[in-house]
Amino acid sequence: MVSFAYFGMRQAPWTLLVLIFFIESVMGNYIKTFYIHWNTTNSIFRIDNTDHVFDLNKGNAQFEYDQVNIICPTYAPGTFEEDTEKYIIYNVSKEEYDTCRITNPNPRIIAICDKPHKLMFFTITFRPFTPQPGGLEFLPGKDYYFISTSSKDDLHRRIGGRCLSHNMKLVFRVCCKPEDQPRPPLPQPTQPTTLPPPTTQPTTSTTTIKPVTKKTHKYDKTPNEVVRSEELSNSRGAALASSLALALAASAVLAPLAR
């Protein structure tokens, strides 16, 4: 998308231009804004550097686009026409860019700087769609080439001109190819939560074993001692029985004698 504005020097000083750029940067849905003064004194057109290459929309979120403001050469009132610079800026192919030769019979015009005593600028929003019929669209992953083949004496010249003599050309690289765009990380499958098995603590039971007191039986002794005890008992019983028997026998004998 290209928007165009110009003001008279007396009605719109540079402070107004700065204010307009500030409002655009606050209200617009874009991230970075570049200001390019399209004249031969701008160092970005030097052939010994790469300042003429711009990387756009890099790192932007969805629906956020960078802008470029091309500012035409402006001169104070009273400056002679032969001392001013005038340009027509074209959007061209890579081959036309390299050769400074416009072969397209209907080239796409980006800006016309033909009023050197008025402040003029053109705002380009590098987005892949445009609300204006026939407007510019800048697709991700594509390079776009701007040149001006105008010369000091011929504004409409299409071969050589200041493109060849002063390297008046720029490259705009629009990020990014669909396959190069960062993709959000894929959701990781939820792993089922496995609870650890309950820890079985060994059951420690303290069992107090009381000693069992056994009654001593006579047979718990040594077998020989038991036999001896029984033999002594039997002997004593037999002796007592014999004594009683003798006593009874003696009393039976002595009883008749006593009569």
TrEMBL record:
Biased composition (Pro residues): 183-200
Domain Ephrin RBD: 31-174
Predominant location category: membrane
Any one Gene Ontology BP term: ephrin receptor signaling pathway
GO function term, MF aspect, one: ephrin receptor binding
Subcellular location: Membrane
InterPro entries associated with the record: Cupredoxin, Ephrin, Ephrin_RBD
PROSITE patterns linked: EPHRIN_RBD_2
Comp. bias intervals (Low complexity): 201-211
Gene Ontology annotations for the cellular component aspect, listed alphabetically: plasma membrane
Keyword rRNA-binding: no
Keyword list, A-Z: Disulfide bond, Glycoprotein, Membrane, Signal
Chain segments annotated as coiled-coil in the UniProt record: none
Region named Disordered: 181-220
Family: Belongs to the ephrin family.
Name under which the protein is recorded: Ephrin RBD domain-containing protein
Species this protein is from: Euphydryas editha (Edith's checkerspot)
